[in-house]
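To whoever is covering the structure queue this week,

Two jobs came back overnight. Logging them here so there's a record in the thread.

Job A:
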Amino acid sequence: MKYSKELVIGLSSILTIICFIWGYNFLKGKNIFNNKTEFYALYEHVHGLETGQPVTFKGLKVGQVLNIIYEQNMNNNLLVHFNLTREISFSSDSKINIYDIDIMGSKGLEIIPGYRDDIAENGDTLVGSVKISITDQLTNEFLPIKDGTESLLKILDSTLFSIINLTDNINLFINENNNKFSSFIYNIDTLSYLILGYQSKINSTIKNLNNIIEEINNSNLTNSINKSNDILGKIDYLLNDINKGRGNLGKITKDSLLYNEVSSTLKNLKELLKDMKKNPKRYVNFSLFGRKTEILIDTLKH
C-alpha cells in the first residue's frame, strides 16, 4: 500500500510537533501523558520561588510549580499554581511551605499534611507558609554580632582618630617648645653636675645629722619625756578632782556658799590691812617708860 507524499509529510510534521511539545515539557519536568491534579497556594512573599521548581511530599518529588500570579484582588498577594504528577492525598488544611532546596538558596514547595478528614480536591487553594531557611537563621543569629562588630569598629576608629590627633598635638607642642626643652635638659645636666660637685659635703651633712639623731637617742630625752608625761598626768588628775569638787580647791570652786565666805573674809582682811596702814596707832601702842609694847587688835568694829 502506497501513501501519498503529502500524507507522509503531514504525519511526520504532526509527530515532530508532538515530540517537540513532549520534549519541551519533559525538560521542564512535566509529563503530559500522566494524570495531574492542580492546586493553588496564596503568599505575601514568595522569597525567590520560580516556576519549574519541585513540589515535595515527605521528601519525595510529587510535582512542580507551574505559574506565579500577582493578584491585585487578593490584597496584592501572590498566587502560586502547582500540579501533582503522583497520586497522593492530603487533607484540605494542609500547608504548602516555601523552603530552601539547597544551601545556595533555591526555593521549592513542600506539602505539610494537616489533620482534617476531608481530602483536598483538584483546584483547591491551600494555605501558604514560609519555612525559615538556614540562611535566614544564620542571618538572624549573626545580625547582633554584625551590629556589635560595626559598633566596635566605629569605637576603634574614633579612638584611633583621637590617638592620632593627640600624637599630632604632642608633636606640635614639642616642635614649638623645642628650645625650652633643650634649656630644661641643660639645666638638669647643670644641676646634676653641681650635685656631683657637692656630693662629699652632702654626705658629710647627712653623716652629721645621723650622729645628732644617734646622740638624741642615746641621751636621757626619753626619761625626761616620760617624767613630763607623769607630771602632766598628775596635773590632769588634780584638775579632774577640782572639776568634780574634791579637796579644798574643788570645794571652793564648786561650793558657792564657801566661795562667798572666803571672798568676804579676804575682802575684810584687805580692808583691815588698809586701815592698819592708815591708822597704825589704833592697833600698836608704844610705852617709852615701861618698855611695853601692846598690840591691840581692834574688834570686828572695823
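Job B:
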Amino acid sequence: MRFLGMLLLLLPLLLSVTIRPDNRTPVLGPPGALAVGDLLAATPAVSTGKGSAIVGAWRLRGGFRLFGNYSALTALPDGRLLALGDRNDTLVFAPPGRPRRPVLAQMPFPGTWGRDGHSFDGEAVTALAGTQRLLVACEGADTLALFDPDLRRFRRITVPALREWGYNQGPEAMRQLADGRLVLVAEMRARWYDRTHYAGLIFAGVPRPGERPGRFELVMPEGFRPTELAQLPDGRVLVLGRKFALTGFYSVIVAADAGAICDGAVVPTHEVARISDSRLRENYEGMAVLPEPDGSSAVWLISDSNTLAWLQRTILLKLRLRS
C-alpha cells in the first residue's frame, strides 16, 4: 500500500524512477554504491518504549536505478539483509556495523511478468530455513513466488485463499516461523467497521496444492495496519504496524505468542516499541531480526520511500528489545 501516493493526486507526475523490466541482470556494486548517512551520530539511543530503543539510524541512498520503494525485509543466512521493493527490485546488503560486502540489486521477475497481467508489487518476503530459497508475496496476486537463492528462477504457487483479500489489501506480511509454519497477514481488516482486527492465514510450510490454510485474526493497536512479521529467538512473533495521519507516518511494533497463532484464534498482541521521534518517523514497511556478535538480537526496519525521494526517505533503523 502506498497511502501517501493515494493522497497526492499528482503522483504520476512525480515518479522519478522508471523500471523497465526487460533486463534481469544483477547489478553488483562496491559497498560504496550504497551511501549510508548516520542520523544519530551525535545523539544517544532513542527510546521507543519501556525496554526498547533505536540504537542506530541511517539514511540510505543508492547510486543505481534499482533503488528504493522497499516494502519488505528478510535476513539471509550469511548475515546480510534482503530488501524487496514494490517496483520489481531487490537490494542485498550488509547492514552497518557488519563487514562491508558488495551491494547487489536486481529485478526478480521477468520482463513479461507485468505485461502479462501479473503483479510484481512485492509486499512480503521470507527466507526459507535450510534451503536459502525465498518466498515472495505480491499485492493483488493469488500466487506466491518461490525463488532460488540467486533470484534468477522461480515457480508460482497458487493460493486460492488469497483471492478473498482485496486487490490493494492483500498479503502485506509473511514469515516462516521457527517451527516451519508459514504465516501471512492481510492489510485487509477482518471486519470493515473494526480498525483493530486483521485477517491471517497459516500453512504447515510452503503451501501445497489443495492445502486448506488455518485462519486467524490478528489484533493491532487502533488505526495501525500490519506491514511485516518477524520472530525473535525467544519465540515471540513481532508485528510491524504503520499508521498515516495528517502529521505523517507513525510506526509501532507489537509482539504475539507464536503458540497463540492457530486456526480460529483471535491473536492478542502487546506493544514493545513505538517510533514517534519526528526525526525518524517514516513509512516503515520491512522488518527483520539478525543475531548480534554478543549473542543478542537486533531488529532492523526499512522504510518505503514511495518513489518520492524529494519528500520521503529510505531509512534503516536498528532497535534493541529487552528479552
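Note for Job B: The first strand starts at residue 27 and ends at 29.

Please reply-all if you pick these up so we don't duplicate work.
Q.
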